[in-house]
Specification:
Layout: H1 4-9, E1 11-16, H2 18-35, E2 41-47, H3 51-58, E3 65-75, E4 85-90, E5 100-108, H4 112-122, E6 128-136, E7 149-153, E8 159-160, E9 176-179, H5 181-185
Parallel strand pairs: 2-3, 2-5, 5-6, 6-7
Antiparallel strand pairs: 1-9, 3-4, 8-9
Helix pairs in contact: 2-3
This protein binds guanosine-5'-monophosphate.
Length: about 190
């Protein structure tokens, strides 16, 4: 079991501070509120990594909205590489037919997970579906994805914190950081 100081010791570099994230989330919320003015949004987020982003973003949107949660697991990959094979562990709890959906994602890496999810959700006939991702690693993209809103473009490094894990740990860090290579081995 890791102790709190171990968590910080495992961080090689802080990429985005708590303040930078909060300012960006506020800005995204303002833009989304303006773009969807007069409409009613459904925010759909994907557990578990998007949980802090979803919780912060929804409180920065000033429109009437509903939320729903999905959980997926990718399989066939490794702990730091996605495979694009996606299994739905938890589906939406309400229909999205005819609704304006904002898919709230923590990070887009290869794009394979999102590509699958977008196809799946489009099959439920929403009026519109737009992606809002906090982090984007464009260097690693394997499939073209239309992204409506992006918080930060980041370099090709495995990041943790603000919801993102390595082996289910580090999600509660308030910043986004890069893990020390030694932390992968231990
Ligand atoms: P993709 O299918 O786009 O390659 O990967 C999407 C999912 O892989 C993300 O939702 C996230 O769960 C995980 N992922 C991708 N890059 C990272 C990363 O740098 N750090 C962490 N912790 N997870 C990542």
């Amino acid at each position: 079991m890791k102790h709190s100081q171990d968590l910080l010791d495992d961080v090689q570099e802080v990429l985005l501070t708590e303040e930078q994230i909060a300012a960006k989330v506020a800005e995204l919320g303002q833009r989304i509120s303006a773009d969807y003015a007069g409409r009613e949004l459904t925010l759909v987020s994907v557990l578990k990594g998007s949980l802090p982003f979803m919780a912060d973003l929804m409180r920065r949107i000033t429109l009437p909205l509903r939320i729903d949660l999905m959980e997926v697991s990718s399989y066939g990959g490794t702990s730091t590489e996605s495979s694009g094979l996606v299994r739905i562990l938890k589906d939406l709890s309400a229909p999205i037919e005819g609704r304006d959906v904002l898919l709230v994602e923590d990070i887009i890496d290869t794009g394979l997970t999102l590509n699958y999810l977008l196809r799946y959700l489009r099959g439920k006939n929403p009026h519109s579906i737009t992606v809002c991702a906090l982090l984007d690693k464009p260097a690693r993209r394997l499939v073209e994805i239309p992204i409506g809103y992006v918080g930060f473009e980041i370099p090709d490094a495995f990041v943790i914190g603000y919801g993102l894990d390595y082996g289910e740990v580090y999600r509660n860090l308030r910043f986004v950081g890069v893990l020390r290579p030694e932390a992968y081995e231990s």
